[in-house]
Amino acid sequence: IVLLFVIPLLFECDALMYYHYAMGLLGEPGGHVSYFRGPGFPTFLILTGQFLFDSFSLTILAQAALGILKPLMFYRILAPFHRPVALAATVILILSTTPFWAAKLILTEQLYGFMLLGIVYGFSRYYFTRDARFIHLTLLVGLAAFLTRWEASVPLLAVTAIIFFMAKKQNRHLRQLFLSIAVVMAVTSSWSVARSYYVVGNISLAGS
Questions:
Q1: 8-state DSSP, 105
Q2: C-beta atoms surrounding 13 within 10 Å
Q3: What is the pLDDT of residue 3?
Q4: What is the number of helices (H) and of strands (E) in the chain?
Q5: What is the largest CA-CA distance in the chain?
Q6: What does the pLDDT average to over 19-42?
Q7: pLDDT-based confidence at 2, cuts 50/70/90?
Q8: What does the angle CA 109 – CA 112 – CA 114 come to, to the nearest 5 degrees?
Q9: Contact (CB, 8 A) for 181 and 140
């Protein structure tokens, strides 16, 4: 909480681009949808009341909440290996302020970092519990990360391949995996078509 008062609000050129991007998604005058950036962070700005309340306050509070959740997920990832080490590592993480430094940065860093950790958390829970629900969690968080920053395609594809090899002898788990893959493909394909319409008014850019 103290850090929220100490760290200044940072709003620079890329932040302004995301702000206009969110305006474009809402169809507001002066807004535009970026061809090169995903819709994840602009959607986050909309959902945290950026335009409803004309304020960054809820966005900052939401990013602070993500900072609080990061150490909890970090602990849950490490705890199955060794609880005392996991606790010590989590305390070090908190004291480093790493989970909180981007809370007042109006860019993708806080949201994207949370989602990357979420991918690892979901995979960890699946690995140790073999609960098929965590397949969905892992891939859907990976999808959200991909729509936030395209480079998340690497961890998303990697974790999908690993889960496939882990689940290939369990038909029910494979069905759940393919269902999640279908959702990912449907959402990304739909966005690709929608983005093309936003940018050029037709589907010529779909799939690019």
A1: B
A2: 6
A3: 60
A4: 9, 0
A5: 57
A6: 88
A7: low
A8: 105
A9: no
Do residues 61 and 72 touch, judged by C-beta distance below 8 A? Answer: no
Q: 200: which 2 tokens?
A: 């050029």
Q: Are 100 and 113 in contact (CB under 8 A)?
A: no
Three-point CA angle 11, 12, 16, nearest 5°: 85
Match 């290996």 to its residue by tokens.
81
Specify whether the CB–CB gap between 9 and 110 falls below 8 A.
no
CA atoms within 13 A on the CB side of 25: 22
CA angle centred on 179, ends 173 and 180, rounded to 5°: 90
Q: Which residue has the tokens 């098929």?
A: 132
Which residue, chain included where needed, has tokens 């409803």? Answer: 52
Closest CA to 185 of 162, 149, 153, 155: 153
